[in-house]
Structure formats: structure tokens, C-alpha cells
Amino acid sequence: MSVDDDAGRFRLRIFAFVALVLFGSLFTRLWYLQGIEADQFQAEAEALVLRQVYEEAPRGRILDRNGRVLVDNKVVDVVTVDKAVLEDLSDEEEREMFHRLAIAISRSGRLTKLESMVEEVNRSQHGRFDVVPVAVDVDPSLLIYLGERPDLFPGVAVSSRTVRSYPYGPLAAHLLGYVGSVTLSELQTANARIDDARGAKTYQLSDEIGKTGVERVFEDVLRGVPGVRYLEVDNRGEVVRERYEYNRQPVAGADLYLTIDVDLQALTEDRLAAQLQQVRQRPDEPGEAPFVGAAGCAVALDPRDGSLLAMASFPTYDPREFVNGISFSQFELLTSPDNYAPILNRCIQGSYAPGSTFKPVTALVAEERGYLGPDSPMEEARDGSIEDTINYVFPGCEDDFEAADTCIFKSPATRIATYGLSEALSVSSDVFFYKLGGEGFWPEPVQGPEGDEGIQDMARRLGFGSSTGIQLPYERSGVVPDRDYFDVQAEAGVFLRDGSQWFPGDTIQLAIGQGDLLVTPTQLANLYATVGNGGVLHQINVALRVEEPDFVTADGEVIPGEVREFGPRVLRDLDIPTDTIDQIHSGLEGVLTHIRGTATNAFRGFPLLSYPIGGKTGTAEVRGLADTSLFAAYGPTDVGTPEIAIAAVLEESGFGSSAAAPLVRSILEPIALDEVPRARTTDELDRLQVQLTSEALDAAEEDGE
Fold first, then answer.
1. Are the beta carbons of 291 and 276 closer than 8 angstroms?
2. Do the strands 307-314 and 417-419 form a parallel or antiparallel pair, or are they unpaired?
């Protein structure tokens, strides 16, 4: 054998060895991929062909304190368009299809524009595989009509979904709020924030989210966990089958029980609207601004725990208008100042000068600082010897002719009398409180040169100038004016003078609730709840409890739903001395019983012996307009803690005694007599209307015979 043959065999052996190693590595890799990592690659392969379709879960219901449903869900038919199918159509074919669809939907009773559907489907936020709703709550007959004509309506289907329903119609609209389509910014924020042990409460662009009221504040509670369907699609995007083993059923949101009583809520709204109507019918006074009476608010609280009992704002709106989507023109009407902005919740967003309803604040701090005690400039007030003159002149101004106009403070008093603190509250003596502001707080005789802002300090301790803590969005804090506030406004170019130019007149006006002081009706109600209960300031609760539905896990285990209670939230206890609070109570009760009490006429005939009330009228001047009418009260006063405190504010309606006080009386009297009428649902009202119409027709036929 030659050397060349040996070399050839050696090279062949080397080649065979290398080939064996390579094939061994290949088989080892195949075994690794198909054996060890098979499950992982199979899952990845399935993920590439599985499409997730989300099914929005029903929102939780909203109920009153007694379990009567205020907001529910109902199943409606929705017309949807599959974007994936539209890709196979030309632009002309797509527009013709939308044109036919708009006609079909409109003829069924739901007026729909072609442009609005196209705009909705083409929103950049919708993905390629999204099924986009274009008409909600359509006639069920469309299901048959569209289903029989798939060639004319490619990609169009009618499916079912749940939407909000309102058994009591527009009742408590501002409190409940409404839901609407989630925006891109809301989507990003909500998906980053919301998670739940029962499943992620994720949002899609076609979902709805709370926009106002408790629908917004308790969105995390009311929203359910959306269900998910998994569809297997091929590389052309066509559905091959549904993977039921991966599907997840939707979980409904939790039920929210509110602190309000639906009967009291209905009574308050009805009486508020009726009183404003009466104001509008009142003849205007010569030379005075007309009584417009177009807007107002009434809010009732429980002084025992800070619970909201009723909240009525007028004009109001119907949240049912938002169920099917609202047009821009409709929304503009709801927000337009020319239309008195019906969507505005005046109870927490309206800012008003409180007028004389603020006087208890001045009285409380005057007592606290000893301005009415021994050896004080106002000592004589306790004995009832402060003279209530027609006007008040700030000391030192009498001989200053140039300053005379700014030193004289007018009073509506028509007689000269002498009053102590309690009686001054009963008859609403401006001069008494002018004197407190001008000679008690300016200059401050006890606390030093900076102590003249004692009224502001007490106002803030009683909740003014800050949120009440009510569980509603967009609450305004109002304004408690002081030197710092003047500095800020002057720097912004709003005021012509800064804090160094805070004058005695500013303190004098503040003492009677005028000037730049602004409060919300809810803050005012909370003041009287605090005075009524002896000095405990609560943060206002709207929610009573939350009840979650039972949850069934993937393996069939039932986890009972959690129940969460909302207890009282005490912000602070002012620890008001008993003799001080007794004086305030006596003065406020005298508003309704004193011979010259400012609300005596309004409450004439009210059962005050069995249900005594403490209250205060207020009239706030508004330049160029009729006065704002205010009244706040609490009762009954013959028990440890009153059961209700209520404040009413009526814009451009005149004196507090002539508009707001009669309104509060009309709300409190059925409570005192235990005759609050039961609120009726819209279905009950419809049946009642049919019955009355039928009876009227029967009576007419009998008369004709």
C-alpha cells in the first residue's frame, strides 16, 4: 500500500469524524429545541396567532342609603364596524357602505350622520383589528335587516352591550355624574394606575369611564374587570377558531351605596325648582334689578356624622343624554353661561358672598377672643346695650369729609334699638357686627397688631377657603380674603391694591359676610352642621359603603365579595365653650321666633314647638344684579345633636327672608311632620300618567253622555 493511499484514508477518517460531530451537534440541538424548549416555542407561536378581544364588564350599580337603585345597567343593541374587513374595500366602496348604514340606522329611529361614523372608525387610537361601535341602543330590528344583507354591509354587525340606565331619570344628576368614552390621556393614566387582585381593570378606547360626580370619583370601585376572548387568526388576519380554554369572563364592578335618601333628594329638587319659578313670577321692584331666579342650590347634611343627605343644583341636566353619546352642540348648551351652565354643580362649584349667614363665624371668634367679655371694648354687647343705629360710622371718620363716603356703612335697620349678641343674630343687626369688625378686630386690642385677621382664622378653622373633603370632583375652595390674598391678586393684576392696603373697611365688610369673601353652599351647610353639633367639623361623606360581587376563580373557587364601610371623618373639634354655643343657638333660634326675627314670617305656621329650628337669613349684594338670597338652618334643636343642616342659595332672587328661607321651610316641614313623599321612578310616573289620562278620558265620556 502506498503512502498516498494511507494519507487518503486518514483524510477520509478525519472527514467522517467531523461529519459525525456536526450531525451529532445538529441532532443534539434538535432534541433540545423539540424536547426541552418545545413548550416555550409553542406558546410563542400561539401568541403570534392569538388575537385578544375585550368584553367590557358591567359597571357597579349606585344606590341610595336605603338600597333603592339610582343608577343601573341595561342591555342594548349596538351597531359595530370591523376595521379589518374595511381594509378589503376601496375608498368608494367604504363610503357607499357607510352611506347605506347611516340611512338604515336613521330610519330605525336613531338619527346618525355618515361623517360621525367615519370619524369614529378612523380615529387613530383604534387598532387594525378593533370592532368599533358606531351607534348605541338601536332598534332590535336592525339585527335582522343588516344580517340579511351582508353584501351591502360588509364588516357591520349588531351586538349587545350594557349601558347606564337611570330609574329616576335626571334625579341627582350632578351628584351621580355621567360616563363617556375614554380619551387617550384617560386611557394611559387609568391603565397605568388601575389594577385589581381579581384581574386587571384595563381600558380599551371603546370603553367608558366616569367623567363627573361619583361616577368619576369612584371609578376604581364601579369599573369591573373586562372579559377576554382569544381568537386564533391566520397570517391573513382571518379568524380560524376561538380558544375557549384561554377565555376569561367579565367581572362586574362593585355596588356603591350613597348616603343620600332618594325621597329627600326628590323633595329638595322639586322644591328648589318650584321656588325659583315663584321668584321669576314675582313683580320687579321699581328702579331695582329684575328677579331672574334662574339658578340656585340646596344641600342638606347630617350634623351627627357629616353625611350628605341631599344635593340639588338648578338648572340641571339629564345624564341619559350621555348614554348614546352627546353632540358638541348639546354639550355646548350644557356648559354655556348664557344658558346658566346646567352641568355646573352649584353646590360645590358656585362661589357666593354668604352675607349675614356668615355672622355666626364673627360671633364665635369675638367670644373666643374675649371681645364681648369684661374689660373689652365690646363689653356692653353682652348686656344688650349695643345701639343698632341706622348706619355705622367708623370712629375717627366723622370729621374727615373726603373719607366720609368710605367710612359710613349702611344698615337696612329702620329703627334704633339696643341688642346683645344673641338678639343681634336674631334680628341680623349689621351695625352690631360692623362695630365688632371696626372696633373689635381693628385694631386688635388683645392679640397685637397682626391679630386683626381673627375672623379669617376662625373662618378657615370652620372649613372656609379649603375643600370640604366631599367625595366629588371639581370642588371649589372659595376665598377667605386677607393681606396675602390681596398681594397675590395685585401681583396678578386683578386688584389695584395689595395687602399693605388692607383697610378697616375690609374687616368691617368681612364681619357681615361681604367684601371679597366667597363660599360654596356646601361649605355653608357644613358651617351650620358644625354650629348645630357644638363644634365638630366633619369632612363630608357621599359614600356609605361598597359591596363587591362574589368572585369565581379559574378553578371554580367562590371568593365572597368584600363589604367596605365609610365611617365619619372628623376634620377637627373646635371645642367651643358651652356658654358660647348656647348664645349662638339662642340667637339662631330667635331668627325664626323673635318678634323681629328675619325669618319669622317665612316660618309662620311651622311646627316649631315640636321641631325647633335654628337658622340665619343672608342677602348678598351683587353689582348690577338682584341680590343673592341665602338661608341656612339646622334642627331639631331640642335633641342632643340636630339630624339635619341645610343651606340654600338662590341667585338673583332678592332677600334671604323672601326666597331662600321659604325654600328651606318647604323642605324641612315634611321632615318635621314625617310626610316626605316617596320618590317615583320614571316607569311609575309613566304608568301614573297613563292611568290619569285614562281616568280623564273616562270622565269626559261620562260627561258627554
1. no
2. unpaired
Per CATH, is 355-513+541-564 categorized as 1.10.3470? no
In CATH terms, the fold of domain 262-352+580-672 is Beta-Lactamase (3.30.450)
CA 129 → CA 51, 222, 237, 261, distances in Å?
8, 28, 8, 46
CB 559 within 8 A of CB 549: no
C-beta separation of 607 from 490 below 8 A: no
Burial class (CB within 10 angstroms; exposed 0-12, middle 13-18, buried 19+) of 212: buried
Confirm if 668 and 635 have CB atoms less than 8 A apart.
Answer: yes
Residue with cell 343593541: 77
Question: What distance in Å separates the CA atoms of residue 45 and residue 390, rounded to the nearest whole number?
Answer: 91
- What nine digits make up the cell of 300? 342638606
Q: pTM (2 decimals)?
A: 0.85
The yes-or-no answer to whether 51-258 and 262-352+580-672 have a common fold is no
**Cβ count near 235 (within 10 Å):** 7
* Number of other residues whose CB lies within 10 A of the CB of residue 375: 7
Is residue 618 within a helix (H) or strand (E), and if so which, with residue range?
strand 614-622
Measured distance CA(431)–CA(424) in Å, rounded: 9
CA distances in angstroms from 589 to 258, 431, 597, 638, 690, listed in the order given: 31, 20, 9, 11, 46
Tell which phi-psi region holds residue 506, choosing left (phi > 0), alpha (psi between -120 and 50) or beta. alpha
Helix 91-107 to helix 114-121 angle (10° resolution) is 120
- Structural domain 51-258, CATH architecture: Alpha-Beta Complex (3.90)
pLDDT, tens digit, for every residue of 87-109? 778 888 888 888 888 888 888 87
Model pLDDT for residues 509-558, shown as the tens digit of each residue = 999 999 999 999 999 999 999 999 999 999 999 999 999 888 776 667 77
Q: What is the mean pLDDT of residues 448-469?
A: 86
- What does the block give as the cell for 163? 349601558
> To the nearest whole number, what is the mean pLDDT of the chain?
84
Q: How far apart are CA 641 and CA 644, in angstroms?
A: 9
Nearest alpha-carbon partner for 432 in 478, 472, 481, 392? 392
Alpha-carbon gap, residue 404 to 692, rounded angstroms: 66
Query: What does the alpha-carbon distance between residue 316 and residue 179 come to, in Å, rounded to a whole number?
Result: 16
Give the relative orientation of helices 359-368 and 454-461 as an angle to the nearest 10 degrees: 110
Of the given ranges (21-30, 362-371, 539-548), which has the lowest mean pLDDT? 21-30
- Distance of alpha carbon 357 from alpha carbon 559, whole angstroms: 52
What are the structural domain ranges in the chain?
51-258, 262-352+580-672, 355-513+541-564
For 231-286, write each residue's pLDDT tens digit: 777 666 666 776 766 777 788 899 999 999 999 999 999 999 999 999 999 988 88
Contact 166, 70 (CB under 8 A): yes
Coil, strand or helix at 48 = helix
User: What is the DSSP code (8-state) at residue 75?
Assistant: E
